[in-house]
C-alpha cells in the first residue's frame, strides 16, 4: 500500500458540513445550570473549522427534539461531494447521553446510528465531538482555564465496509467525570481542540492531534489551582485510514508528523507486558484459537522489547490480584505498561474470569 492510500481522500469539491450545537441556557424545569464559557467555545471551534475549509453552521440552545431533527435531516442529505462530516455537541451530559435545553436526554449511540447506512458517507470520516460531563450527576467545575493562546489508486480492489467503520467519537472527559470550564475562556477541552485544529489540522493526522489535545488538557488541569477533579479526554475511532485536512488544492500526503508532535520520552527499558489468556471456563464456551492469539501477541510484544508475562485461565480474583501487583510495582525505568486480556466479555463493559465471574 502506497503512503497516499493510507490517508482518507480529501480531494472532493468540498471539505464537508460541520454542525456545532451549543447549548448554554436550559429550561427551569430541566434543573440544569447555565454552561459557563459556552459562547467562547462555540466561536473558537467555529473559527478553527472554517480555517480548515468546513462549511460551519452554529446552532444555539436546541431541545432534544430539535437536535434529533437536525441529525435526521443531515442523515438524509447528500454528502457525495464532501470529504467528511462533523457534528459537535456542546451541552450537559449524563451516562452515555447528552441533554437538550429541555433536559431531555439523547443517547450518544442514537446520534451516530442514522449515519451508518448513509451511502454518500460510506468510506468517509464521520466525526462526532462531545463537550459534556458524562456523569449522572452534573458537576460544573469552575477552573482557571488555559491561556488563549492524491486519491487512492484506481486499481485497488473495492471492499464492502461495515456500517460501523469510519466513525470517530471525541469526548471531553471520561464517563463519571466532570469537564473543566471557565467563564473567560470556555472549556479547557474545546479551547485546546480549537487551537490545535488551527495550528496542526492541515499537517498531522486527526487522531495524533486528539492525542495532543488529551495531553494538553491534562497539563492545564494540573496547573489550575482551582481544579479538584481530574479531567481526561478520550476518543474512540473506527477510522480505517489516516485523516487530515490539507488546503483544498494541496493533496500531498507525504507529511513529517514526527517533527510536529511531542513523543513520549524513551527510558532505560520498554516495560512490562502482561497477557491474560482465558481459554476454558466453568460454564461459558471454550474460546477457540485464543492460544494462537496469545502466542502471536507475545511474539510481537517481545519483538518490541517488552518483558512479557503470559498467564493462562485466571479467575476474576486472580486477574484483580495481578493488576494490583502490577500497580504496586516500580515502573520508574520503564517507558510504558501493557495489559492485554483475552477472554469472554459482555456488553456492559465487563470481562469474565475463567470462573465465569465478571470484572
Word description of this protein:
With 359 residues, the protein is an alpha/beta fold. It is built from seven helices and 17 strands. It has helices at 38-51, 64-76, 108-112, 188-200, 206-223, 290-303, 316-328; strands at residues 14-22, 55-60, 82-90, 93-94, 97-99, 105-107, 126-131, 141-142, 167-171, 180-182, 186-187, 234-237, 269-277, 307-312, 334-342, 345-346, 350-351. The strands form five sheets. It has a six-stranded mixed β-sheet with strand order 2-1-3-7-9-12, covered by helices on one side. A three-stranded antiparallel β-sheet has the order 4-5-6. A three-stranded mixed β-sheet has the order 8-10-11. Strand 10 (180-182) and strand 11 form a beta hairpin. The two termini are 40 Å apart. The model is unreliable at 136-158 and 251-261 (pLDDT under 50).
Question: What's the short version?
Answer:
By secondary structure, the chain is an alpha/beta fold.
Amino acid at each position: 500500500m502506497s503512503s497516499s492510500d493510507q490517508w482518507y481522500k480529501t480531494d472532493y469539491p468540498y471539505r464537508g458540513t460541520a454542525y456545532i450545537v451549543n447549548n448554554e441556557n436550559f429550561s427551569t424545569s430541566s434543573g440544569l445550570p447555565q454552561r459557563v464559557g459556552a459562547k467562547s467555545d462555540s466561536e473558537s471551534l467555529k473559527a478553527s473549522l472554517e480555517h480548515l475549509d468546513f462549511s460551519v453552521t452554529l446552532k444555539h440552545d436546541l431541545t432534544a427534539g430539535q437536535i434529533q431533527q437536525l441529525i435526521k435531516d443531515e442523515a438524509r442529505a447528500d454528502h457525495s461531494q464532501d470529504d467528511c462530516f462533523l457534528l459537535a455537541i456542546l451541552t450537559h451530559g449524563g451516562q452515555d447521553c447528552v441533554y437538550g435545553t429541555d433536559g431531555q436526554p439523547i443517547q450518544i449511540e442514537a446520534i451516530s446510528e442514522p449515519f451508518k447506512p448513509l451511502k454518500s458517507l460510506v468510506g468517509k470520516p464521520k466525526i462526532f465531538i462531545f463537550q459534556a460531563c458524562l456523569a449522572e450527576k452534573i458537576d460544573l467545575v469552575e477552573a482557571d482555564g488555559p491561556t488563549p493562546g492524491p486519491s487512492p489508486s484506481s486499481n485497488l480492489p473495492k471492499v464492502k465496509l461495515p456500517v460501523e467503520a469510519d466513525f470517530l467519537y471525541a469526548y471531553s472527559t471520561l464517563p463519571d467525570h466532570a469537564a473543566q470550564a471557565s467563564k473567560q475562556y470556555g472549556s479547557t477541552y474545546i479551547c485546546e481542540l480549537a487551537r490545535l485544529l488551527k495550528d496542526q489540522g492541515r499537517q498531522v493526522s486527526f487522531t495524533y492531534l486528539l492525542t495532543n489535545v488529551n495531553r494538553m488538557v491534562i497539563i492545564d488541569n494540573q496547573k489550575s489551582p482551582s481544579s479538584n477533579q481530574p479531567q481526561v479526554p478520550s476518543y474512540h475511532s473506527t477510522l480505517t485510514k489516516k485523516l487530515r485536512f490539507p488546503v483544498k488544492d494541496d493533496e500531498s500526503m507525504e507529511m513529517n508528523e514526527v517533527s510536529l508532535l511531542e513523543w513520549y520520552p524513551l527510558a532505560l527499558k520498554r516495560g512490562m507486558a502482561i497477557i491474560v489468556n482465558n481459554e476454558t471456563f466453568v460454564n461459558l464456551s471454550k474460546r477457540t484459537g485464543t492460544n494462537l492469539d496469545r502466542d502471536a501477541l507475545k511474539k510481537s510484544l517481545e519483538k518490541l522489547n517488552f518483558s512479557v508475562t503470559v498467564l493462562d485461565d485466571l479467575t476474576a480474583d486472580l486477574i484483580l490480584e495481578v493488576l494490583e501487583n502490577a500497580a504496586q510495582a516500580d515502573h520508574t525505568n520503564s517507558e510504558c505498561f501493557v495489559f492485554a486480556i483475552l477472554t469472554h466479555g459482555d456488553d456492559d463493559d465487563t470481562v469474565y474470569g475463567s470462573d465465569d465471574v465478571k470484572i
